[in-house]
Amino acid sequence: ETKNNSTLCWILGGIDDLGLIVDLAWSIAGEEPVDESLGYGDPTVTGDPLPVYAAGQEDVSVGLTAPTVEGADWEGNPVTIEPNGTPKIIAFLAHWCPHCQADVPVIQQWINDGNLPDDVEVISVATATDRLRPNWPPQDWLEEEGWTAPVIMDDQIGTVAGNYGMSGTPFYVVLDGQNTNMGRVSG
After folding, report:
1. C-alpha–C-alpha distance, residues 10 and 187, integer Å
2. Which residues lie closer than 8 Å to 32 by C-beta, 6 or more apart?
3. Can you list the positions of beta strands (E) in the chain?
4. pTM of the full predicted structure?
5. Cβ distance 66 to 45 under 8 Å?
């Protein structure tokens, strides 16, 4: 048993030393360790998922009810996609996607110019987050663009995107006030 305790102490000491080595490496590199939770949320989706959208083909989910989503933005403020009587445009955006990067300022300018009807809401979903790709974390990119639409942070496995049948980014879904899918566009 003394040998087992000695081995355990050696292993734990080695793990502690490894932590110091990793911290030292980050210090030498001049960077802080990455917070792996940045860019992700913990949304809840209820209802039946929409089928995957086949770009270039008729959207077979038109007329189906899209799932309700309860999530939060990067500051923890609640954001919900629900049948509340307000029509919505849902924009699924990936921070690394060049087409999303091109669309965001155009959409924001369209909103700024007062072109969004008063009775329609734009809600965005930050999805397909990858810290190794450009514009990470997505919240920094969207803030830099002056993005004013509420943002739901999707989780690491893309639960919201998957339930809305996203097939590529950017991905747009138009819902009526009862969350009925009026049409989807990808890319």
Report:
1. 54
2. 26
3. 44-46, 68-72, 78-81, 88-93, 121-126, 151-153, 171-175, 181-186
4. 0.81
5. no
